[in-house]
Amino acid sequence: ALRGAAGRAEVTVVRSAFFAQNFSEGALLDGVIGGELVFPAGTAAEPFLDLDDLADVVVAALTGDGHAGAVYELTGPRSLTFAQAAEELGRATGRPVRYVPVTGPAYASLLEEFGVAEAEAAFLAELFATLLDGHNAATTDDVKRVLGREPKDFSGFAREAARDGAWRG
């Protein structure tokens, strides 16, 4: 019975770009507070997605009609390099924030210095090398198609997070 029900399940796939909130939570938070984002993204551009947009799309897909079988590729409205994102964060915080690109192995070594296990550090470095190789630089209109509005821009996220005290330290 379960196999039959699973075969009739309606599925909607939601995939997303790098989250804007990665700069206000988790591993990149301290870099913004300290004014230096050390990260292995090189010069790749990323259409940073605000998690509010992701949540709104998922709610719409779960509660609305017409989403079964859809595949949504969610992005912000424009692509930024990490250096450009750092500049935007600096404007929002009123303090300089600069991006320092490092290689994957150098990033793994830095993680290990902060107590991350060697295997996990190597995995994270490889993960970021795969995710941030430039293949996600293109934007889509999927947020607008689902929600009927433009996705939130990174600069708006940065101003809101700064106003809410995300980087007070």
Automatic annotation (TrEMBL):
Transmembrane segments: none annotated. PANTHER family: PRESTALK A DIFFERENTIATION PROTEIN A, PTHR43162. This is NmrA family transcriptional regulator.
